[in-house]
Amino acid sequence: MSEGVLVSKAALVTGAGQPLADAVARCFAREGARLALACLPGQAEAARGVAADTAAVLVCECDPADPDAVRATVRRVVEALGGLDLLANTVVQRADGPAPTLSLEDWQRVLEVELGGTVYFCREAIRPMLRQRSGRIINITDVAGLRGEARAVNHATARGGVAALTRALAAELGPLGIHVNALVVGRMAHELDELDERTRARLLQYTAFGRLGTVDEAAGAALFLASAAASFTTGHLLQVNGGLYS
Q1: Do residues 20 and 222 touch, judged by C-beta distance below 8 A?
Q2: In this structure, what DSSP letter does residue 174 have?
Q3: Which of 106, 181, 199, 208 is spaced 20 to 30 A from 233 at the CA atom?
Q4: Tens of pLDDT, residue by residue, the chain (246 residues)
Q5: Alpha-carbon gap, residue 167 to 171, rounded angstroms
Q6: Which CATH class is domain 10-240?
Q7: CB 18, CB 44: distance < 8 Å
Q8: How would you label 109-129 residue by residue, b for 16+ Cβ within 10 Å and e otherwise?
């Protein structure tokens, strides 16, 4: 078994089958965590690939927008892993478009998955963590949630809510031994092909390094928040954005 910084920790990573979640799962596994994975409905095949790479104990399809499904998933995870020490909320659900023409369905789905799902997974993970009076929760937010992003008002709204949720939970749960932090990521290198030329140029111009970050770089930051090195860190929004603040 790895003698890494997360050895024997029971961890749940959401969004399996997506690039960021998969990088976080692999990083945690390399450091000795015992993993369970939750994926969006229809993404089980992709999730099983990372499960094989990480020797995950359990893979669950779960709609984060369904609080009953989230409750059942977390219960299965706690039973399979014998507890829960670490939750990484890394699911992404984008449906970008101009605000005046963005459909109500796209508004609701992004808010329900990215914000509602984070709320529901946090709520259910807190229960076993309270029993042991310890735990780490790492949420994912976005520079869009702090500074806004044109043509992505639903995503920016959801991620801004996640940032506020993170700090509120940190204040409430800190006295009970539970750390709650968030990564603030920007657009990532694997998304370049999805962006129009103007957006790509703007992003590359304003990052300090002239490039976009990788999912592995974000996963490394998540590992810090999950580790004992962050023992006095809570309510923190750790920027992993290459200097993209404006």
Answers
A1: no
A2: G
A3: 208
A4: 347 999 999 999 999 999 999 999 999 999 999 999 999 999 999 999 999 999 999 999 999 999 999 999 999 999 999 999 999 999 998 777 777 877 988 889 999 999 999 999 999 999 999 999 999 999 999 887 777 666 778 888 999 999 999 999 999 999 999 999 999 998 788 877 777 788 778 777 878 888 889 999 999 999 999 999 999 999 999 999 888 775
A5: 6
A6: alpha beta
A7: no
A8: bbbbbbbbbbbbbbebbbebb
